[in-house]
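writing this on my phone so excuse typos. first protein, seq and then structure
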Amino acid sequence: MSNAKYQVRERKAGVKAKHLRRDKIVPGILYGGTYSESLMIEMDQNELIRLMRENSHSSLVPLVGLEKGINVIIKEIQTENFTGIPRHFDFQAMSKGEVMTIPIPIKIIGEEELKGKNIYIQVGLTELHLKGSVEKMPDYIEADVSKLGINDRIVLSDLKIPGGLEILEEKEAIICIAQPSGAGSAEEETEEEKTPAPAAEPEAKKE
């Protein structure tokens, strides 16, 4: 759960989204939890950018500025294609102890320890789905490759998962494999050797 709190406001009826964006305010929607109906809200653009920078989709995010403080998860943030500036957001309010299934990114660590060992890490699974209380959800799960030798692998069952959370994927799904770093280039060289060089064009006869 984030230690920071983020300011939101209930959106006034009848105000068009384009007018809000012109004033660097981002329109959004809040639903779930104790809200029986969706609530139209808004955030200052810089405040939302800070929230995006400091949290992931699995983070439990505290909001202030409404009738009471609430915790939410990020369901969707729409951004402009080239600038990445947020245009609209969807937050889901969470009740204490509520059980959810959330995709959690897998973070590879320890690759710097493999320098000089002629090993590169071939990545397989990049996220996993955890089911459990949202308060226990981590922002990411680490996979430490620092001790791997050639052809060693890390599978889901090797990861350290916080207690009370359930992995929904197969426990033997491959996170990554340590490969010899020259394997790919050797195959490419072999293919190049097999490919005949183009025949030289005959020189034109001089008159």
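second protein below, same order as before
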Amino acid sequence: MRRKAFPVTLVIVMVAFLSTIFFVNANLSFAASGKKKSPAVAKTSAVEQTEARIKQLQGALKITEAQTELWNNLTQVMRENAKDMDALTDTLAKERAEGTKTMNAVEHMKFHSQITEAHLDQLQKFIPPFEALYDSMSDEQRKTTDTIFRTGRFGKNKKK
């Protein structure tokens, strides 16, 4: 029986999209401006966002005991990716703050290129454990997973 590649491709595209939202959304202009962030505007770290996401996913996907090892492999990669992204954004923010106060268009594109390359590397690490977990899922779990990655919703805020 041949599986359709479309759902896996859709999941990969959604992971890339969600990763971009989570990790590129860091507002590094504060670092360049030299202003201190107030607690109200403090950036949430990728590690904090990932931990929250892991809890949401684990509850929504109803990971079984048989899937625990696959789930743990996936969450380990997610945590490592988040730590790497925090380190990268911190490094880039410092470099940007130490450099000129404003970047020209080429420097700005190079800056975002570094983050995009990191996302690609992280996706390449993420996909194999995610695919292994997805392959072990029941039809109900797959349906839930597909919905989450398609809509970003965890089943609580469904449109009527």
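The two ends are 35 Å apart (CA to CA). thats all i got for now
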